[in-house]
Amino acid sequence: MAIINYKPKGEGEANLKLTYLAAYLIATKSTLSAKEMSSLLADRPVGSTS
Fold first, then answer.
1. Which domain of life is it from (predicted)?
2. CA gap 23, 16 in Å, rounded
3. 50 lies in some domain
4. How far is CA 43 from the centre of its chain?
5. Does 49 fall in a domain?
6. pTM for this prediction
7. 43-49: long-range pairs with CB below 8 Å, 24+
8. Which of 13, 26, 41, 47 is in the most buried spot, having the most CB atoms within 10 Å?
9. Is the residue at 20 inside a domain?
């Protein structure tokens, strides 16, 4: 999935990326691999809770 490799240009884009990805995972009833999850978490700013 290309969305996993997309690097957001700010917190707003990071939130949109997660929203899109969550909708995709729910619609397809699929899961992320450990590598994909690590990649997503690396995109989040340190200390971000929202």
1. Bacteria
2. 11
3. no
4. 8
5. no
6. 0.72
7. 43/7, 43/8, 43/14, 43/17, 44/14, 45/11, 45/14, 48/11, 48/14
8. 13
9. yes
Residue tagged 């929203």 (tokens): 19
* Rama region for 6: left / alpha / beta (φ>0; ψ in -120 to 50; rest): beta
What is the torsion angle, in degrees rounded to the nearest 10, for the CA atoms of residue 42, residue 44, residue 48 and residue 49?
-100
The domain tally of the chain equals 1
d(CA 32, CA 35): 8
Residue-wise pLDDT for 1-50, tens only, equals: 788 888 889 889 888 998 999 999 999 999 999 999 888 888 766 655 55
Using CB atoms within 10 Å of the CB of residue 42, give its burial: 0 to 12 exposed, 13 to 18 middle, 19+ buried: exposed
